[in-house]
Amino acid sequence: MTATSDLGAPQLASPDLLRSAFRRHAAGVAVVTARGETGPVGFTATSLTSVSADPPMLSFSVSAGSSSWPAISGADHVGIHILGEHQRDLAATFARSGADRFAAPTSWREGPKGVPVLDGVLAWLVCRVVSLVPAADNRIVLAEVALGDPTGTGRPLLYHQGRFTALRD
To answer: Interior CA angle at 38 toward 141 and 128, to 5°?
Structure first.
């Protein structure tokens, strides 16, 4: 095996290495919602993953230090919302710490199981929380899909190089 000149110098594992590598990974953008004791909560997630088709199950991660974590950790059900490229502002609102995420102009309603459902998304799912798995300073939430609506129109919103973006043809 010969060395190639296009390999850069490897870096030791660090938070910066992981962040730098994942900035190069385009991810779909979702908003996770739940009903909290004092009202609805939600956050922007790029960690949404399909786990199983039968039974239909997904996962996402959430920081155990986030303002949404207490509600998520106590929720029986959560809402998953796949955002469209027309929803950059909504994604930014739900990503911003301290924002009143459910105030105008956010359009939402109480959905099945009391889960807040956002309007105008490409797809939404209401999922039953199955398991909370500790993972460093985060928790991985495993949730089984109960019902939803995948009929929204538009193209998906992506997160890449530290910003929200759209697909290019």
So the answer is: 30
Q: Cα dist. 49→3, 73, 101, 105, 169 in Å? A: 35, 19, 23, 28, 24
Asked if residue 23 lies in contact with residue 162, where contact means CB atoms within 8 angstroms, the answer is yes
pTM recorded for the entire structure: 0.92
Fold of 26-151: Pnp Oxidase; Chain A (2.30.110)
For the chain, the domains span 26-151
Residues 118 and 91: their CA atoms lie apart, in Å, by: 11
Q: Which helix (H) or strand (E) holds 17?
A: helix 15-23
- pLDDT tens digits, 6-55: 778 899 999 999 989 999 999 999 999 999 999 999 999 999 999 999 99
Cα 166 to Cα 87: distance, rounded to the nearest angstrom: 10
Note whether 52 and 72 are within 8 A (CB): no
CB neighbour list of residue 8: distance below 8 Å, 6 or more residues apart: none
Q: 122 and 156 in contact (C-beta within 8 Å)? A: yes
Q: Give the closest residue to 78 by CA, choosing from 128, 29, 38, 112.
A: 128
Peptide bond connecting 55 to the previous residue in cis, omega within 30 degrees of 0: yes
